[in-house]
Each structure stands twice: as C-alpha cells, then as structure tokens.
Design brief:
globular
C-alpha cells in the first residue's frame, strides 16, 4: 500500500501465514497499548481465526501501520460474507473474535485498535482514509462490545467522508470498583448479601476442609473444563434453548486457548472444594491487572446449604482486591443486574458501532433488527409457556 506520510506505511495482512509471523511484533505492541485487553491479544485472536474462519466464510483484513519500519498500530479486522446476514449487510467488516453463529458464541469483548497512546490520532486518520478510499471492497462494518473510550469510534469524523456511522448503547459492563480491603467490599454489598456471605462461609468452614483449586497446568485445566461443562449442563439443561458447552467449535476454541494461555498464567478455572468434593467452578482470563469473569457453574446438591458459586466469586474478588486488580464481570444486557446489589458492582455502558458506504444498508439493518426484536418478545413467553405445560 502507498503511504500517507513520510516513513509511515499502511499494509494489509490477509493470509494466515502472515498473521502467524506477526506474533512477536503484535505482542510487543499489545504490551505497550494501554487500552488493549486479553481479547485483543495475538493468542486470543489467532486462536479464534483458526477455529472459526471457515465456518463464517470470512477472510483476513488486518490493517497494520509501520513508522520507520516499526509496528505502531493494528486494526484486527476480518471481512465475512456469510448467509443470511450477507443479504442485508453484504461484505461485513468486524473485529477478529466476533462474527460466529449464536450457538457457538465466544463473546470476545472490548476489541479495539491496538496502538501506542501517542499514535492514536495517526491510527484513526490512516484507517479512516484507507477504508473511505476502498469502500467499493466492503459494504458494512459491525463492532460489538465497545467501551466508551474506544479508539475506533473516533473514525470518520472528518467532513469529506462518505461513510455513514451509527453508534448506540449495547449492553453494560459490570466491574468491582477500587476497594481498600474485603471489609470495604462487604460493607458496600447489599445488606442481605453481606449477611449471607458471613453465614454461608462460616457454615462451609465448619463442615470440613475448604480450599480453592486452580488449574495451573494444561492437564488440570482440561479436567477442570470438563467438570465445569458438567456443572453448567446440570444447571442450564432445562432452562435455555442453547447450551454453549455443546458447541463443537466453542469447545475447540477453549481447548486451544487454554493450551496457549494457561502456561502464561493468563487463564485458569478455579474450583471451590470441601473435603475433596467440588462445589463450584469459575473460568476467567487475566492480564494487565484485569481479571475477566468468563463462565461458571456449580453442583446443585449443596447449592442451598452453601451458595457455593456466590462464595467462590466473593473469595476471588477478595483476591483481586489484594492484588490491586480490576474484577470484571463483563457484558450484561440488564443495567439493573443483580451484580449491583449482590457484588457492589458498578456499571458502565457498552456500545455497538456500525459503518456503511450505503445508507440503504443501514436502514435495512435497522428494519431487520426491529423485526427480530418483535419476534423475540413473542417467542420468549411462548417458550416459557411450553416448558411449564
């Protein structure tokens, strides 16, 4: 590609070999990018691409910017053309990590440009200009789970652009704000939940030897994932139409990502155990002083006696507080989630960003979405009625 500025070049990565070969540079830039989370790491995005690219009929479209032959910015895109979305959206740009079908959802969050802080403006300008100049090569762009500080939302702000943009709130992020101690945390919980923690924890400790087991190697991680699957299935089998742990692609992704991240201490499945009997497990990812709560489950046998998952999460929040780490519950549709009272969590809005060179596609997408929402409003109570019959 031609350059827009002396010694600054924008290049395209469109092959898996080039994607694999940029690993070392990507990791160095990721470490220096203040806003990048584990979901924008090379490990996460490359693993997702390995598993899902054929299933969603997509091609790599990673924009990388070099200055004086040094990597300073990455826009980790891919372009999908999967049916039936392509009928309305056409060739759709998304972040790598997003675009899989609902039964296989990985739910990669907070993706954004990976860029050094001092180069953010340059990155925004280069990406905006390039996509505006090559708009005949794509029809739509859809970016989910963005934070309010996202860099990508600042694209196409210049007047000469012919790209239509639409930014709307899309769910909420819940997280534990900075606390001085666990006592501070417990004092900010709802009174009911604070008392419950004290009562249930005392009962648990009086009943036997209690410990939290962590999956510190691949073998224990695989066993813990299998156990989590069993817990999750027992809890949700008759309560939802989709059990994500039954997805072949979902399981393939997590087998690979655990192999890559567990040795780096960036992924673990922790299990609350009493007298060598597992009670509850939760699966999380961690990096850059952030701990992301991903999945969880518990055995129903002792659920009423101990509320084991509640206890486990509280104990892990305690550990995060002691390590001065952000405990992140991630996405929730409901701004009044139980996490507010139960865990003293704070809430920030998340966003969905869409672009298109064609205004008609934006209008068609909005219309299709409104039809889908009406269908879901009708479908949900109908399913509940059938299950209760």
């Amino acid at each position: 590609m031609g350059s827009y500025q002396v010694n600054t070049q924008l290049k395209i990565i469109d092959s898996i070999n080039d994607f694999e070969n940029i690993r070392e540079e990507w990791n160095m830039l990721y470490d220096e990018s203040e806003k990048a989370t584990i979901f924008s790491s090379w490990d996460w995005m490359f693993t997702w691409w390995e598993v899902f690219n054929k299933a969603i009929n997509s091609k790599l479209f990673i924009l990388v910017i070099y200055q004086n032959e040094k990597l300073i910015g990455i826009a980790p895109f891919h372009i999908s053309h999967s049916f039936p979305k392509s009928l309305i959206q056409g060739r759709t740009i998304s972040f790598i990590g997003c675009g899989e079908e609902t039964p296989d959802k990985i739910v990669s969050q907070y993706a954004d440009f990976i860029v050094r802080p001092e180069h953010e403006s340059l990155m925004i300008s280069f990406v905006s200009r390039y996509l505006n100049e090559t708009k005949s090569q794509w029809d739509f762009a859809d970016f989910l789970f963005l934070l309010d500080s996202s860099i990508i939302s600042k694209c196409f702000k210049f007047e000469e652009t012919k790209i239509h943009t639409d930014l709307n709130q899309y769910g909420n992020r819940f997280y534990i704000p900075h606390m001085k101690s666990f006592d501070d945390f417990q004092n900010q919980m709802g009174n009911r939940w604070s008392k419950m923690f004290t009562k249930k924890n005392k009962k648990l400790e009086n009943d036997g030897e209690v410990k939290i087991e962590s999956s510190n190697d691949i073998d224990t991680a695989k066993k813990a994932f299998k156990q989590l699957t069993e817990m999750h299935e027992a809890r949700w089998n008759n309560r939802t139409d989709i059990n994500i742990f039954k997805s072949k692609l979902f399981n393939e992704f997590h087998a690979k990502i655990l192999e890559r991240l567990v040795p780096q201490n960036k992924a673990s499945i922790n299990t609350l155990v009493i007298n060598n009997e597992p009670l509850a497990s939760y699966y999380y990812f961690t990096d850059k002083s952030q701990l992301h709560y991903y999945q969880s489950g518990f055995h129903t046998m002792h659920a009423n006696r101990y509320s084991p998952l509640f206890l486990l999460v509280c104990k892990e929040i305690d550990l995060a507080i002691n390590n001065n780490s952000l405990f992140d519950f991630m996405f929730d549709e409901n701004p009044d989630s139980y996490k507010k009272e139960q865990y003293a969590a704070e809430c920030k809005p998340m966003y969905r960003l869409m672009w298109s060179p064609h205004k008609s596609r934006m209008l068609k997408h909005k219309y299709a979405k409104s039809i889908q929402n009406r269908y879901l409003k009708f479908k949900t109570p109908l399913l509940k009625f059938r299950k209760n019959k």
